[in-house]
């Protein structure tokens, strides 16, 4: 089943963010407020340029809001935190390091022996389906395998929160579907809270417990949608189509062209 309740882990209050100089400022985010609970998968869905990646960066402490607060696990976010990791679509693997050494990368600053690092890295490689691939280099991997290494590296840190910025956008449809299933399997096992930024409507419905739909200029949340379906979900089921239609109507896709993916 989907999210059934948990303690509040993220509280975002009246976050505003602008870019530019005194002569010309562009408002990227305006009055963003939301709460996220432990163990949820949240999707932030919206067209390109609506500020969803900026919001993710503020949650992760990589950018600072002009106004408002982000509280993570009871503490105000003032910078990056080991309890929170970001997963990007470009994988971020170091080409000169093996799969094992890429996964160990985040562990090297911790008080672990080399054997403990290796054991932990191998455990998470097995969890993402890459057992016996630890000695390969990134150039020897497919895009889907590279993203699995990225997921393993994130999980090895045992974070409370994983931020995913369109992590599967560069993959073909079949690899994307496969990794979406893998992400759900891993998340059900690890219970890690996840926030996913996407412009893919199906991906948002398939993965998340709640969807926050954003509008642009300035970036604002104008609808929250709870996805009350058991996981794993059937994309062809009428209830899945029901949620697609709600989002379709929200974006008025029949009346204006915006770069939202709508897979049929």
What's the CATH architecture of the domain at 1-83 and 194-264? 3-Layer(aba) Sandwich
Q: Strands of the largest sheet, in order across it?
A: 6-7-8-3-9-10
| Name of the top-level CATH class of the domain at 1-83 and 194-264 | Alpha Beta
Unreliable residue stretches? 253-258
Shape: globular
CATH-defined superfamily of the domain at 1-83 and 194-264: P-loop containing nucleotide triphosphate hydrolases
Q: Major sheet: size, sense and barrel closure?
A: 6 strands, mixed
End-to-end separation: 25 Å
Question: Can you give the helix content as a percent range?
Answer: 25-40%
Which structural class matches the secondary elements? alpha/beta
What value does the average pLDDT take? 87
Question: How many helical stretches?
Answer: 7
Radius of gyration: 19 Å
Q: What string gives the helices and strands in order?
A: EEEHEEEHHHEHEHEEH
Q: What percentage of amino acids are in beta strands?
A: 25-35%
Report on this structure.
- By secondary structure, the chain is of the alpha/beta class.
- It has a domain at 1-83 and 194-264: Rossmann fold (3-Layer(aba) Sandwich).
- 31% of the residues lie in helices and 26% in strands.
- It contains 7 helices and 10 strands.
- The protein has helices spanning 52-60, 99-104, 114-127, 143-156, 173-190, 201-207, 238-251; strands spanning 8-20, 25-37, 41-45, 67-72, 75-76, 84-88, 161-165, 193-198, 210-215, 220-226.
- Strands 6-7-8-3-9-10 form a 6-stranded mixed beta sheet, with helices on both faces.
- The model is unreliable at 253-258 (pLDDT under 50).
